[in-house]
Amino acid sequence: MTQEPTVSETEQNADQPPPSGYKVIHDYVKTLETSPGVYRMLDSESRVLYVGKARNLRARVSNYTRPGNSPRIEKMISLTTSMMFLTTRTETEALLLEQNLIKQLKPKYNVLLRDDKSFPNIIVAKGHAFAQIKKHRGARKEKGSYFGPFASGSAVTRTLNQLQKAFLLRNCSDAMFESRTRPCLQYQIKRCSGPCTGLISQEDYNDSVHDAERFLTGRSTKIQEELGAQMLAASEAMEFERAAALRDRIKALTQVQSAQGINPRSVTEADIIGLHIDGGQACVQVFFIRAHQNWGNQDFYPRIDADNSPAEVMEAFVGQFYGNKEPPRQLILSDDIENADLMTEALSEKAGRKVDIIVPLRGEKTELVAGAVRNARESLARKMAESATQAKLLRGLAEAFQLPGPPQRIEVYDNSHIQGTNAVGGMIVAGPEGMMKNAYRKFNIKGDDITPGDDFGMMKEVLHRRFSRLLKEDPNRDKGLWPDLLLIDGGAGQVSAVAEIMTEHGVQDIPMVGVAKGVDRDHGKEEFYRIGQRPFALQRNDPVLYFVQRLRDEAHRFAIGTHRAKRAKSMSANPLDDVPGVGAARKRALLVHFGSAKAVTRAGLADLRAVDGISEALAERIYDHFHSQG
User: Fold this and answer.
1) Helix or strand or coil: residue 464?
2) What is the pLDDT of residues 415-449, one digit of tens each?
3) In the 8-state DSSP scheme, what is residue 303?
4) What is the reported pLDDT for 1?
5) Of all helices (H) and strands (E), which one includes residue 428?
6) What DSSP assignment string belongs to 534-592?
7) Cα–Cα nearest to 283, from 380, 147, 356
8) What's phi and psi for 623, nearest 5 deg?
9) Contacts of 155 (CB under 8 A, 6+ apart)
10) I want to staple 394 with a disulfide (CB 3.0 to 4.6 A). Which of 22, 366, 406, 488 is the partner?
11) Which pTM does this prediction carry?
12) What is the per-residue pLDDT across 68-92, written as a single tens digit (0 to 9) for each?
């Protein structure tokens, strides 16, 4: 898209409650142009109900003025009180804009991809004479060769481990590389060739880098043949130690390939996308094929309605999934999409090269799609079974805690610290579909007036910040952000502290339960505390008790993990981070020159001035920072 679409918006403006339905839409049709664009249907509170695209806005919107639509569309029309329109130069621009607006606005009546996360890559970073191999997420700003995407961080880690065994490439930072005076543990366990201490020449190391890149682009068989020939030659020359090292490298390459499972012969670079719909729910399974290798698979559960066709669901998924990802050269789908030519054009424009969308009918590609659909079917069956179990547990929870109905959003809170240091609070969220990890939140405890180790004070701060934000972001409680139940890790004291905060914010209609370990802090003897009521317990074999334990343990795990990350960050903090005017480049120059941060803190003024990129004024600032303290 080379220019912003022109905007032409028409809004209802009436003092009385606005009319809705067919007449409203019919009035808009009279004013519409025949150009391509995107339309939005809004309800009486200006919430977006639906976002759609059109080659001809007037013709497309006029379809909503004629009865005979599905029950879902009829309901949407009856709620529509106003519409908004954005005209575009081409239908391709309209398609891209439509998918962006759906992801941003999350309209109720659109198919919506709810879990749109980024995927990790492997980068062979080449900003240094000795290239580094590592995991990468986000924008590709660093100089180097990128390979991916991989389906998960664990898939990348597993592949990196084997690649390090096979090619002995370093994974240490540049600063650590420059500061080494002897080989590190990675060299001792045969995961690195020791370039930091000159144990391998730059030429030989670059050959290993080249071999790793060849492997990641699919030329693994050729590499294994070459390594096999080298191993045989070393054995014949009675260089048995070298032959054993080459044998280990071949074995590592074979392990990478076996871990990848499916390695198609006829598919070089593609995403295999299989869809299964059952009972008004859908699962989409995506396999990432790169360089003839399977780099993992991931399942997704888009929000759909019972009358959405497979073609609608597949088109919406493809459009939203590649909204922030670079598409591969081929998309191999289990179902046709409604506007295949248009989607092909849009994805090709985004990628800057040809992207093919195919629905195979025979051959290996058909087998790959069938495998993806089978995985989607099995994943959806598991999820539906888990959802049924979850619904039963939520009903049991409502009965046990005397709630008006099964909670749709449960928030569980816990704190973690060591004698008050690096204190954090954690909030996890659960609902009908299980743990809602994208709703988890962490709170760095900031209160200066909190005594170190004061769990009550920490919990009060966390709840104060949480409900202050809720009242600001969702004062009418219509965005689904408010909890139906609070679970607090603790007994009567914690519950009283939280109740005090809730009263201060005027929020006293949310049920709250404290979960305490009970007698001898024994798992299974938990006691539950509520304001103004006696504590009680559940039977040891009650499934609701196990459910609460899982929630409490998940909150504990999340809080502990957040605390450990904060503690590790504070322990690894670099003294140079606090020096004004010393950014990443100058920090790197200082570390390369002196070898360590501690050496920088002890350096004299003349030595600091000698560092490339450090001016006289900055050298004095660094010297004063470390010598005027204490």
Assistant:
1) helix
2) 887 765 778 889 999 999 889 988 999 998 876 66
3) B
4) 42
5) strand 421-431
6) --B---TT-HHHHHHHHHHHHHHHHHHHHHHHHHHHHHT--GGGGSTT--HHHHHHHHH
7) 380
8) -60, -45
9) 120, 295, 296
10) 406
11) 0.73
12) 888 889 999 999 999 999 999 999 9
- Sign, CA dihedral 360-365-366-372, equals negative
Answer for the pair 216, 147: CB distance below 8 angstroms, yes or no. yes
Beta strands at 48-54 and 121-125: parallel, antiparallel or unpaired: unpaired
Per-residue tokens: 581: 């005017």
What's the one-letter identity of residue 42?
Answer: L
Closest CA to 538 of 402, 386, 408, 388: 402
Sheet holding 281-290, edge to edge: 293-300, 281-290, 269-278, 330-333, 356-358
Whole-angstrom distance, CA of residue 444 vs CA of residue 622 = 30
Residue 477 and residue 544: Cα distance in Å, rounded? 28
Alpha carbons 318 and 163: distance in angstroms, whole number? 32
**358-362, 468-472, 496-500, 565-569: which has the minimum mean pLDDT?**
565-569
- Beta strand residue intervals within 43-152, DSSP E: 48-54, 82-87, 121-125, 132-136, 144-147
pLDDT (tens digit per residue) in 450-478: 666 677 888 888 999 999 999 998 888 87
Rounded Cα–Cα distance for residues 19 and 25 (Å): 10
Instruction: Quote the distance between the C-alpha of residue 230 and its chain's center.
Output: 43
The residue assigned the tokens 């001792």 is 188
124 and 134 Cβ atoms separated by less than 8 Å: no
For tokens 């009650």, name the residue.
542
- Ramachandran assignment for 363, one of left (phi > 0), alpha (psi -120 to 50 degrees), beta (any other): left
Query: Is residue 494 within 8 Å of 455, Cβ to Cβ?
Result: yes
How many percent of the chain have pLDDT more than 90? 40
Output the CA–CA distances (angstroms, integers) from residue 248 to 155, 241, 385, 583, in the order listed.
21, 11, 44, 42
The owner of tokens 């050496």 is 599
User: 346: how many CB neighbours lie within 10 A of its CB?
Assistant: 25
